[in-house]
Amino acid sequence: MLLLIAALAAAPAWAQVTVENAWIRATPPGAKLAAGYLVIRNAGAADRLVGVSSPAAERVETHTTTHEGDVARMREAKGYDVPAGGTLELKPGGSHLMFVDIKAPLKEGTSVPAIIRFQRAGEIKVEFQVRPLAGGEHHGH
Description:
Structural class: mainly beta
Shape: globular
Radius of gyration: 16 Å
Strand content: over 45%
Number of domains: 1
CATH architecture: Sandwich
Number of helices: 1
CATH topology: Immunoglobulin-like
């Protein structure tokens, strides 16, 4: 009974943060990296995405893209702030998740499981839908 009460007490905080439209680009044979994108909606207090893990990759890093003139540079970020009552979109050409040392090619039409960890909301399980390799907005890794 105590466990049920604890689960119900945690549910409202978890329900404040939702993840939508999670997708990852298909990879060619031999690729070691894949970029993942999603939309995070936060109906509650400010939160922070602090980590991501997936059985499909050795690790998942949070990356950001900066533009210096005509040059786009990608670097690892230490998580992302999710504003109170706001939305954070990870998208091509901007902030994104980098799946590093993927264990097998990601094939269009499949999905990739992941767990996203937030400072306040805890863990959320997500399925990234694998989309076609074409449309290469993400280069340079």
